[in-house]
Design a protein that fits this description.
The chain is an all-alpha fold. It has a domain of 75 residues. Helices cover 48% and strands 0% of the residues. The protein contains six helices and no strands. The longest helix is centred in the middle third of the chain and has 14 residues. The protein is elongated, with a radius of gyration of 27 Å.
């Protein structure tokens, strides 16, 4: 027999909880300002404390993955609001006397490589327009 007095609990819906729209918009700002791919954007957010600070995240917070970033960007693009959003962002910065310019992140990693020294015969062959046998 079913107890009629007991309220029915709503069943939770499946899937991930959606990210805050403001957060994902800020992610897109970083993506476009630093000319990053969706995958690089995800990686840089995980790696850079300055990105996390800008987004209001801590190391423990979940961050949007590359697919989420791409999907949100596509939704804005398809709704024709992407350009308007970035124009408003630029106006807000200009109102505070700031200018945001797109840039890129450069990897400054040094990689040790073996030194290659050509023999005299190889140098002579290269000067004649040939390719030494040891190069192939």
């Amino acid at each position: 027999m079913i107890d009629q007095a007991r309220p029915v609990k709503p069943q939770p819906k499946g899937g991930k909880k959606p990210y805050d729209n403001v957060l994902v918009c800020k992610v897109l700002v970083l993506k476009y300002l630093y000319n990053l791919s969706d995958e690089q954007t995800e990686l840089q957010i995980r790696d850079r404390l300055s990105f996390q600070y800008f987004l209001g995240l801590t190391r423990a917070d979940k961050i949007p993955d590359a697919r989420t970033i791409w999907l949100f960007g596509e939704e804005l693009h398809c709704a024709n609001v992407e350009r308007k959003l970035f124009e408003r962002f630029q106006k807000a910065l200009a109102g505070k006397g700031l200018v945001a310019k797109a840039s890129s992140i450069v990897d400054g990693t040094f990689v040790e490589v073996p030194k290659q020294r050509n023999r005299r015969e190889e140098n002579a062959q290269i000067k004649r327009g040939g390719i030494p046998e040891s190069f192939t």
